[in-house]
Amino acid sequence: MAELEESLKNEAYKFETKMVFGNPFVGISKEIVEAQADIVVMGSKGSSGLEEVLIGSNTEKVVRNATCPVITIKSPVKPKDIKKVVFASDFNEVPGDVVKRLKAAIETIDAELHLVKINTPSMFENTRTSIEKINAFVKDFKVSAASTIVYNSATEEDGILEYADDINADMIAMSTHGRTGFLHLLSGSIAEDVVNAAKRPVWTMKARK
């Protein structure tokens, strides 16, 4: 984290250090509001098994509830080294505020954007329909994409991780629905699962209702 802080300072980002005691999720949520944060950067070791089902990690809670984008990292990374970003979506009514923030992030670090729609046996969609949705997304939001692809895999989570590996992406970007409580236990969150399993940085933003 010290290396990331120094990198941010060197690249003229506003970076303040503060130590707060207490519940991590509550403290971070409060700081996001008070600082009117544009983005949150969090380190994570991930969680699994019973711990993940019952309480989840503090990182997952922030990803689920934060009002601004969250970048989750698991190893040292410098913004200037993030040159290839994968944005995974079903491209059904992607929230405009998510796209706006993502485009701003991509432009700030001068990275290229790769769009992917994961096709699975349980959520099958013919390729022509998927491509039409991706093309409409690019046109509607004036997105400059280095590539677009429909990628087949067993699950959405696996497909996102596999495609990111295939093209050696530096970061994964996703929108999350931000569900909580019983509904979250029933449906889970693809974004949170990717955050938990990914080795590379993951950019997420909650879709506002």
From TrEMBL:
Pfam families: Usp (PF00582). InterPro entries: Rossmann-like_a/b/a_fold (IPR014729), Universal_stress_UspA (IPR006015), UspA (IPR006016). It comes from the Bacteria. Residues 6-74, 83-204 form the UspA domain. Signal peptide: none annotated. Belongs to the universal stress protein A family. This is Universal stress protein UspE. It comes from Cecembia lonarensis (strain CCUG 58316 / KCTC 22772 / LW9).
